[in-house]
Amino acid sequence: MRVGVLAVQGDFAAHERALARAGTEAFPVRTAAELARAEALVLPGGESTAMLHGLARDGLEAALCESLTAGLPVFGTCAGAILLAREVTRPAQRSLGALDVAVERNAYGTQVDSFVCTAEVDDPRDELAGLECVLIRAPRIVRVGAGVTVRARVKGDPALVSQGRVWAATFHPELTSDPRLYLAWLRSASESA
What we know:
With 193 residues, the chain is an alpha/beta fold. 27% of the residues lie in helices and 30% in strands. Helix 1 links the parallel strand 1 and strand 2 (26-29).
């Protein structure tokens, strides 16, 4: 599977390395032509407002919306989750609206309030049990739509969700050496193709 990583802002290179640990080569996406080559896409963490500006500046926003509508598998982390959300608060911000969730930006505090914890899963046999979550100025998912599956929680809040081919995490899996989340997402993307 050809996996692109949006490279307009944020730590896209860390996602490329994480995908390589999961056995998948990834490439940076900066143009609509590069996006058209992607069979799946990662929206990295970073600063969601800056990403929106970059998408508009580079003429990528319309192409990305078309790809999402066409069913492109997408995984957004932290700021990428904010971009995917249907509703964004604190402050309100436009988004791509591809995932039926509401998120509150910087909900756990500022940079100095960043923390690492273990994902909470319903079943200890879940493939993501024990997953380390790195939260940096992280958003909080405050509403989950009926068609959204909560796959993991942090401090009781949904932290990893999926709706069809769209996955989002409020944390940074690229900052750990654990490839399980990428493997689960890639498997889901392949199965629903």
